[in-house]
Design a protein that fits this description.
CATH class of the largest domain: Alpha Beta
Bound molecules: nicotinamide-adenine-dinucleotide
Number of helices: 23
Strand content: 5-15%
Oligomer: single chain
Distance between the termini: 79 Å
Number of strands: 17
Helix content: 40-55%
CATH architecture of the largest domain: 3-Layer(aba) Sandwich
Number of domains: 3
Radius of gyration: 24 Å
Mean pLDDT: 96
Largest sheet: 9 strands, mixed
Length: 677
């Protein structure tokens, strides 16, 4: 074993060091999260301090108390920076490198370290993976304790995680999940933004986003495939694009080059569009440029527009990163009467007043300072910017642009500040991408963002898994029903090109939209390939929570549920419970993620495939439920695609018996409507 691995192992088994480590000091090589506003009273600050010190042996309390208090007064919460390990690089190491009694536990360590890898995470030193506040843990003591527990646990134990805090190891059995994660679970009446900020500052709750606090983030690749699907289908539905055509000649403007939003740059060029992505944070834009996900970067609004227009005229795919505010770009497009075909937004508006969305006419630095020093002014400027933002979008749309809400709560927050984005009947003026595209075309049929990680860290294994998946999809095409054929064709095209598109950041991971049958066939084939040595080491399966069954979110994943149940969360909760007893290696369920605290409940799983018969049994049982739970619910909501899909699932599996809806004749309702007072 090389030195680096030995140091990593030593650090993990050490847990919280008995002797205080030297403070690593801030490192300017990585981006840091903006400081949060001060929300706690003096008494509450003492409570937060007491909460933090309970992780630390008593002999260090006096020396750490003032350090933690300074952190609280500076960052708005206690991060315990001193405990960030600096003796080894933070990254996914090969599975065998981890000190562990349980292979399953080792795979979770790998995924945790990947989520905190500086190449992968947005603010790695603040333990934030993406989305501005998507946390893996609240502080570095939690990280250290969790890694130590994972290194010690057996397959007869389960680690219980409360919002980043490891409650401990509890006896269980080999078929139980090794880790059960809950993030941000609260009593429903205590789920306001204010509640979150207070509880997080106290160190008792965290925002796990979707794949951050569930250790399933695989870098922006995780969203590239879905974004490509959205762009292609937006153009098919609204610009009359042929099924086999790409987006050459199509102009697209959006914003955000952060964790997820960075995917737009890559997806736009994969789809063939000419695209500008405005990003106010220079570091974020440069990171995407260095990764090769942006073709070019400019600070000039006019240069960005001119380049987009001329590239579209030549039919060239280009992704232009504009370091600047999206609102200033839209207003300039209005002024210059630029024709934009597709428009969207991926600023972090799920978190508008804590640094997710920056006011216009200010530099990023000015805004960040204002946020911590004058949060009231920051709030006001954000609201004014949002009003301008919506106004410019409205003008562009009136001139022919197709705009969609990209699951970032743009319409919700714009409506909250009084922008003209609401129709007379209370619905939003623009569709959410799920309502229009992802829901009816993908989720209703069970297609969603399936993913896997090769724990060897060997790109050859990833290449082999890509080939396996392509073979499975090709075979599925032979007898695919007409209403899912195009999706399988798109997904096959994606997986064939995925290697060439250099999408890997961090672990050797792949995303592929697939339905229940596809997911299980691919997993089964990979499990066999692990058993016969074609793939050198186990593979972790997972998915984004942003999926068919994992998420109840009325303005996003369940936006196309129209039977009045879009505000219920039974599906997401049932999903996690069902995954847990059908063989998941770990499960998680979160309040908040994507669209904001209190606005969504979402869950997911991780599953280690090690080539064994147990893996085969678990994948068959769990993946089937993990998809069909949501398809069944979507069918019950009378979504036509889902009704077809669940019938097909029942034909294939006689033990599946789903309650299907009897559709009411529209004429009968019209008749009754006429008689209503
Ligand atoms: N499209 C999807 O499928 C999908 C999936 C998950 C999440 N989302 C949502 O998209 C949003 C972005 O996610 P993320 O992970 O990229 O978040 P992020 O915070 O990492 O990135 C957002 C970026 O927007 C930039 N920004 C903020 N205000 C701006 C402004 N006015 N002008 C220009 N740039 C500005 C920020 O500097 C930041 O880099 C979130 O709300 C997230 O929930 C979308």
């Amino acid at each position: 074993m090389d030195d680096e691995v030995l140091r990593m192992r030593a650090s993990i088994v050490e847990g919280i060091p008995a002797v205080l480590p030297a403070h690593p000091r801030d490192d300017d090589d990585v981006d840091h999260a903006p400081n949060r506003r001060q929300i706690l009273s003096n008494e509450e600050k003492l409570l937060a301090l007491e909460n933090a010190l309970r992780y630390i042996p008593i002999q260090h309390h006096r020396s750490l108390a003032s350090e933690f208090l300074t952190e609280l007064n500076t960052y708005g919460r206690i991060i315990m920076r001193r405990f960030r390990p600096i003796d080894h690089p933070m990254k996914a190491y090969p599975l065998d490198a981890y000190p562990a009694k349980s292979k399953q536990a080792a795979s979770i360590m790998l995924m945790i370290q990947n989520n905190l890898d500086p190449d992968v995470a947005q603010f790695p030193h603040e333990l934030i993976t993406y989305g501005g506040n998507g946390s893996v843990f609240q502080n570095w003591a939690q990280y250290r304790l969790v890694m130590k527990y994972l290194s010690e646990m057996s397959d007869e134990q389960t680690l219980v995680m409360y919002s980043g805090h490891p409650l401990g190891l509890f006896p269980s059995h080999p078929d139980a999940p090794r880790v059960v994660v809950t993030n941000g679970m609260v009593i429903p009446n205590y789920s306001s933004q204010e509640d979150y900020e207070r509880m997080n500052a106290l160190g008792v709750s965290q925002y796990g986003q979707m794949t951050a606090g569930s250790y399933m983030y695989i870098g922006p690749q995780g969203i590239v495939h879905g974004t490509t699907i959205t762009l292609l289908n937006a153009a098919r539905l609204h610009l009359g694009l042929e099924d086999s055509a790409d987006l050459s000649g199509v102009t697209f403007i959006t914003s955000g080059l952060g964790g997820m939003s960075g995917a737009q740059a890559k997806a736009a060029t994969i789809a063939g569009a000419a695209c500008i992505i405005a990003e106010t944070n220079r570091h974020a834009a440069e990171k995407r440029y260095e990764q090769g996900w942006l073709t070019t970067v400019t600070h000039s609004v006019d240069e960005a527009i001119d380049t987009m227009v001329s590239s579209a005229e030549k039919g060239e795919a280009i992704s232009i990163g504009l370091v600047g505010n999206i609102v200033e770009l839209w207003e300039r497009c209005v002024e210059r009467e630029i024709k934009v075909d597709l428009g969207s937004d991926q600023t972090s508006l799920h978190n508008p007043y804590q640094g997710g969305y920056f006011p216009a006419d200010r530099t990023y630095g000015e805004s960040a300072t204002m946020l911590s020093e004058n949060p009231d002014l920051f709030r006001k400027e954000v609201q004014l910017t949002l009003l301008r933002h919506a106004k410019a979008i409205n003008t562009m749309s009136e001139r022919g642009m197709y705009f969609w809400d990209y699951g970032n709560a743009f319409l919700l927050e714009a409506s909250r500040v009084g922008a003209d984005v609401v129709n007379d009947d209370g619905t939003f003026r623009y569709p959410s991408y799920v309502e229009d595209i992802m829901g009816p075309l993908c989720f209703d049929y069970g297609f969603g963002p399936y993913r896997w990680v090769c724990t060897s860290g060997d790109p050859k294994d990833l290449e082999r898994t890509d080939q396996i998946a392509a073979t499975v999809l090709r075979e599925m095409l032979d007898d695919a029903p007409a209403n899912v054929r195009q999706q399988i064709v798109d997904n096959l095209r994606w997986i064939k090109q995925a290697g060439k598109n250099n999408l890997v950041v961090g672990s050797q991971a792949r995303i592929l939209y697939a339905d229940d049958v596809g997911r299980r066939k691919i997993a089964l084939a990979m499990n066999k390939a692990i058993a016969n040595g074609e793939i050198s080491k186990p593979v972790v399966l997972g998915r984004d929570h942003h999926d068919v069954s994992g998420t109840d979110s009325p303005y996003r994943e369940t936006a196309n549920i129209r039977d009045g149940s879009m505000f219920t969360a039974d599906m997401a909760i049932q999903n996690v419970i069902g995954d847990a007893f059908r063989g998941a290696t770990w499960v998680s369920v979160h309040n908040g993620g994507g669209v904001g605290w209190g606005e969504v409940i979402n869950g997911g799983f991780g599953m280690l495939l090690d080539g064994s018969a147990e893996s085969e049994r678990r994948l068959q049982s769990m993946l089937h439920w993990d998809v069909n739970n949501g398809v069944a619910r979507r069918a019950w909501a009378r979504n036509e695609g889902a009704v077809d899909a669940i019938q097909r699932a029942m034909d294939l599996e006689p033990r599946l018996q789903v309650t299907v809806p009897h559709m009411v004749d529209g004429d009968l309702l019209d008749e009754l409507r006429g008689g209503l007072p």
